[in-house]
Structures are given as structure tokens and as C-alpha cells.
User: Fold these one by one.
Assistant:
Number 1:
Amino acid sequence: MLNPAVVGDRPVRLLFQDEARFGRMVRIRRCWSPCPLRPTVDNGYERQFVYVYGAVSPLQGELDWMICREMNTVRMNEFLLQVSQAHPEEFMIMIVDGASSHRSKELLVPDNLRLIPLPGYSPELNPQEHVWDELREKEFPNRVFADLDSVVAQLQEGLPRLAANPKALRSLSAWPWIISLNLKAN
């Protein structure tokens, strides 16, 4: 139950949250090369991954993110706390998918944050999915990484670059139905 005192007259921030897996397996993408040459791309089959928790704020064009080596309830708790502390003056509504860590009894949701689940099997309703696509397209096309630390290093370069561009984030995530929402808590 929502306590009106917790909300008070804080501004409301809408976030869409999701996790993504990034690893050493290459994603082959189209690319250009001068005629008559054909581009060559190395291929890697190593199944090693790191995870990124992300939450996009479409109206503000902001991205909160956290890189970790595993995806579970403990890491989700850390991410929720990180987001809560990043926006302490706001009341946040975070839209999440049906991942088991989002429904766990051990999940600790900060007072200034509420989780709202998306309908099952509906990733097309989550603009954070488009943020992941943009990150993969711009930072990871046709790349083979020697080790997992190289993947993390690329994420640590690419995520801040993406987060520093509010206009691009709004373009990816501020869909008409999101913009038209009335976000008043009281």
C-alpha cells in the first residue's frame, strides 16, 4: 500500500527497467567495405557474459545502469538502492518485466520507489529494450573480445557515452503513449 506521506509533493519519475547480457560471442552486423573487397569478421564462440541492469527515464532522457557478473535478487536489490539514491527527491515508478528477481520475496524496494510489472511476454512495451539495441549496435558490432574484462571495459566506455546524450535517449524511449501519461502522485 502506498503511503501518501512517502510521496508527499515529490515529482514523479517514470522508469523502464530491464537487464541485458553482454559477452564474448560476436554479433555479426552489416558493414561497409570498399569495392571489390569483402569485409571479414572474426567469430568467437566463448559463452562468457556479464550483465547490465538498466533503467531509462524517457521523459528526462536519463539512464541509470549497473554492470555485474551475475543477475539475481541480490544484484536487483543493489540496483534499486542505487537508483533510489540517485534520485532521492523524486518518487519513482519503475516498470519491470516478469523476471523472477523482480517478484522475489527477498526483493527490497526503497520507500521512494514502486515497481509495476509489465504484462507477460511483452518486451515490445519496454523502451529499455531499444536502449540495449542501440548500445549493441554502436559499441559491440563485429567485435571479438579476448576476455570478459575487455567486454566490461567496453561497457564502461559505451554506457556513459550513451547516458550523456539525453536527446538520443528521449528519441529511443519517449514513445507517444509514454509522453501522454499524467504523472501526478496526488
Number 2:
Amino acid sequence: MFKDKGFAASSMRDLAETVGIEAASLYNHIKSKSEILQEIIFHAAAECNLQLDEVDADGKSSLKKIEEVIRFHVQMMLNRFEEYHVMTHEWIHLSEPYLTNFTTQRRNYVQKMESIIDEGIRNKEMKPVLPYVAMLTILSSVRGLEFWHRSGKRISPQTMEDNMVNHLISGLKKN
């Protein structure tokens, strides 16, 4: 519902109706719709952070690390679109201190991705690009898969993932 209507336009009554219970009964299980938003966003963010930490700790090349990060994000967009969409679009509705917590996590995530790209450039695995621009291009491209979901095109998720990875990695790879 948060993906389809947006957080602001979703009411507790709507949520209760969607899950098939009375609104008053819903309050026995959760305090507010903000609590649901927090759970969705921080669950997805925790998975992203865990995956990036694992990839970064691995002894693989920077290019391979970035490939794995791209594959992870593409799979999130393809297989868990609603959750990923809520994390990337509805986070602005978090209340404090959750908003600051999330923006700090996001900033750290971006810096860690930039660091991996910078390392790849220093190691001559990647073209000399601005790490921030490369990171922004990768994450923006992945978010663009929202159009694939809406298009109804019959391209398999695996084909979509492989094509995106190949395209994005070829833009970074040093010849």
C-alpha cells in the first residue's frame, strides 16, 4: 500500500482493510503506520548494509565487489520491489530520530561504495571516473527498474540482471 498510494495517503483504516481486520484491532498489533514504515525501511536498509559489509570484507577485486553490489540491488528491485521502493521513496516520511538514523546509514553506504570504486581506480581496475558519479549512476540505474515493473515487458529477471551488470561494469572497467 505504501508503494501504491504512498505513506502520506495511506491511513490506518486502509491498512486494516487491506489485511482484513478492523482498524481498532490493528492498533492491538502496531502503534502507528509510522512503525510499519520504520520496520520496512530499516529491514531493507539492514540487508543492504550487511551485504555491502560482506562484499567489502571479501578479498575480491574492487570491480568484482561492485558487480556483486549491482547484482544485489538489481535482485532487490526485481524480487522485492515493494520493499525496496518504500525504502528508496518513502524514507522522507520517517520521524526523528529515525530520519537522522536512516540518512546517516545512507550517507555511510554511499561513502563505502565510493571507497570501493576509488580503490578500483587506484588499482587500475576501473577507469578514472568520479566515484560519486559512478555510485550515483549505479544506484539510479537500478532504481530505473521500476519502469521494467510497469512496462509489462517479458524480459526475464535473470536477463535483466545480466544486462544491467554487463552495461554498468563495462562503463567502469578499464580496457
Number 3:
Amino acid sequence: MRKAFTEGTDEVSEASDLIEEFPPGLGDESVELAAAKREAAEHYDRFLRTRAELENVLRRQERERLDLSRYAAEALARDLLTSVDDLERAIEHASAGGGAQDTALFSGVDLVRKNLLAALEKHGVVRVPALGEPFDPSRHEAVAMVDVENAAPNTVVAEHRPGYMIGDRLLRPAMVVVSRPKANADTD
């Protein structure tokens, strides 16, 4: 593996650098061996870096694939939640009517709501607990604050719209009413 030092100045300076590293009296074979070892070390280092980069790419791709499969139903679930809300309002309105209800229709609507919720739950969509829980801005959206005698401050006292999560992601925050901290009323 002898290099020809005819035209390129880079090759000549490279050879002179190698010669300066070794004491005088060593043969050309030692210089070539040292150059080959340095080149092998550089190639091995490049190989290790490329291998680590490939492993990182594969891990990232696997994580993205898992996230895609885990959250694939997110858009569909978000669209279906509006229908679930409508069914819950219909059931609430029918039960609050107080008059003669068509129990078959009421039962049918309730059954459809339960089936929709079961299908969503099967795909990882779960309801966010809200009523009676401490207010959590990462899961709840406060629409009002009220004074309540028997509730601790910053506690959810009413829920206008339920919130849902899919896996560990918030799909939709719960719209809630939160109890206000009691003001110290010092009237003189």
C-alpha cells in the first residue's frame, strides 16, 4: 500500500507528518503501518457513529409507528364525541320533561349512547373525571367560578361538557364550573 508522491502536495505533506511522528531510523513499513492503523481507526469510528445513528432512526421510527397506531382513532373519536354529547342532552331533556315519556324511544337513545361510549372505550377513549375533583387546567376548562359553601376551593362543582382522553393524550378538556376560594370578609 505505497502511495505515489508525484503530483499532490497533500499526499507529500501527509507522508512528512507521519515521518515526523516516528523517530528517525524506522523504515517505510512502520510509517505505512501507522498510517494504515490510523485510517482503520477512522473508518471504525465512522462505522460506530453510522451504526448509532441508524439505531436512533430505527427507534424513532418505531416510536412514531406506535404513536400512529395508538392515536389513529383520535380524529374519528373527536367527531363522534359531538354525537355522544347530543345523545346525552336528549336523554337529559327527556328525563327532565316530567311528562309521559316514550320509554322505548328513551331506552333506544340511551342504548345508542352506551354503545358509542363502549366503542370509543374499546379504542382507548376514556372520560376525564371532573365532578368533585380538584381543578386541573391540563384536563379541565373552567367556564365559571362560583361560591359554594360545602366545597373546597378550586374544586369542580359542575360539569357542562365531559372531557375525554385517548391513551395519555387529552382529546377534549372537560368544561367545568369551579368553586371560588372563600374571601376573608373582615367588615368593621
Number 4:
Amino acid sequence: MKPQVICHMLASLDGSLHPSRFTTSPDGSRAEWSGLYEQIHGDLAGDAWIVGRVTMAEMSKAGAHPPAHVGKVERPYHFAQGGAATYAVALDASGKLHFAKPDVGGDHVVVLLGHDVADSHLAELAADGVSYIVSETTDVHLATMIEVLGRELGIRRLLLEGGAGINGSFFAAGLVDELSLLIAPAIDGRAGNQGFVEFGEAGLADKVQLSLKSCETLAHGLVHLRYAVTPR
């Protein structure tokens, strides 16, 4: 069964995801905005959260350390820890992420990998106590992979908190059920600012519809918008 997917984001008025580049505001600080974002993250009560490779790399800075001898590795998946309270999921199709420990902030790590990932990388992840799922098709099929998360790990609610690329891929695949968007009283204004969701030249105009569920003014100048998302 597919987990419920809620895209939960904090953005400036012009869609930037980088609070360090936001303008300042007398209504609140970047730390206060981030703190409320994390509070709502907890209130949403996800069993897991998912980000892309670039975002996860900011949290896990280990270098490559494959084992000296690679024996038989498990495919298409290996679960080092089933029944964890919460999971940190990373989409890393090319197998570039490395981990010094099997959790991020106490959340057990699960990596979603591309079909051609090397056995040596899988052996490294397994040795570090990290779980993984390898795509059984040449192209990473997100719907299949998150269904595995639900079936094998019991994940019922997945918080999508990545960058524009992974967010766009989930929206385009019709996998997002809700958008939870915190708007800060700030702008970024850099040329080429990508925004919190992106799906190449095709865009998302003919792929999803949004319907407003609620609009709430929070402390520190934040506005919390919640939308139901349906595929077209």
C-alpha cells in the first residue's frame, strides 16, 4: 500500500529553500522560522521523511569506505533494521552517498538506489547498518519503491522534504497527496532561483491540481498553507 505523501516545505515569498539567503524581517528570525517548520514536521506525525542526494549529503558527510572483500549482496533490498520508530529516506540513484552511522538524528536510514549501483556500494551500506532498496528497472520507479517502504517497513505517512528536483519528480508521478507550505516574510531574489519544486522544461501544468484545505497565520510572520493534491 502506498504511504500517504505530504510535501512539507519552508520557503520565502519567491520560493527559495535557503533561509541563509533570505532577507531579514522584524516579524521573526530565520532560526524561529526553522524552529516552527520542525515543530509542524513533528505535528504531521510522519513515519518517515525523504530527501534527495544533495540534501542528505549535507547531513551525512562520510567518505567512501567500501569493504576490502565484497561477498554476496542482497538485492533488490536489504533492511538492517525493521520496525524502527521513524526512518530517514534518501533518493540516491547513482549511489554517491556514504554514511558514518545508520541513522540521522535517531531516524534509521534507508537509501533508494538505481538499478546499476555497484555491489561494493551495497556492501558498504550493509556493513554500516544502513538499509537500502535497489530499483529493479533501469529507470527509478518512485511509486514501486515507496510501495516497498509501506509493505516492508510499515511506513504509512511519508514527509517529502527535499529540494526542487525530488519534489518535482514526486508531484509529476502523482504521488503527493498534500502540500504543507510555510511561507516566511522574506525574499531571496537571486537570479535563477529555482523554487521549491521543479520538473524540467515540461513543468507540472498538466499533471496536478491543488485545492486549498487551510490557511493559518503563525508566529514570527509565517503563513501556513495546506493544499490537497490530486493528479490530473
